[in-house]
Write a structure and sequence with these properties.
heterodimer; A: mainly beta; seven-stranded mixed beta sheet; four-stranded antiparallel beta sheet; 0% helix; B: mainly beta; 10 strands; globular
Chain lengths: 122, 108
Amino acid sequence: EVQLLESGGGLVQPGGSLRLSCAASGFTFSNYAMSWVRQAPGKGLEWVSTLVGGGTITWYADSVKGRFTISRDNSKNTHYLQMNSLRAEDTALYYCAKDQGRSYPHWYFDFWGRGTLVTVSS
Amino acid sequence: EIVLTQSPGTLSLSPGERTTLSCRASQSISSSYLAWYQHKPGQAPRLLIYGASSRATGIPDRFSGSGSGTDFTLTISRLEPEDFAVYYCQQYSSSPRTFGQGTKVEIK
């Protein structure tokens, strides 16, 4: 059974940093791209970032480019989202998602975690 | 960026009813690269449909997807109590991958 468990969310001041983690199990982690998707309060879903299985290629939404960094440790079946220069508009529930498909961007999200809440406020 | 518009915003229905949710794209989605997800509060979103019409593993056959180009639909043939949730469409035809704003299916 595929399981994705996010952690690392919390309250941070504007301009601050936070690192989210996603622990995966139930599949061969290194074979799959992984993504982060977020949902701001009262809003819909927004794709944030994706990293291929080997960790060499990344993609970012324009809204986070230059501030967020996605990475992974295949030996720990875990991927991460380092968030710097956080803004109030980054406040959201952040979901970890497993990608499925042939080649980017033709990947859909076949499994998701329950999310971790990030609140950016002074 | 492809913008997806879902309608209606909210549906108030009774168990046993049939319903159709709409997802319209601002430009044509190639090869039917469209997915549907179900999301309940406090739970992980769940993949229902990919490739516009293929059911994900374990999804009951009361859920079906159809459409091509710019117009897609998700049909629930007979609503069960566990189907009351928010439904999102998502395109993976071009980057950035985008979602619709969601349709809430609530109990009448």
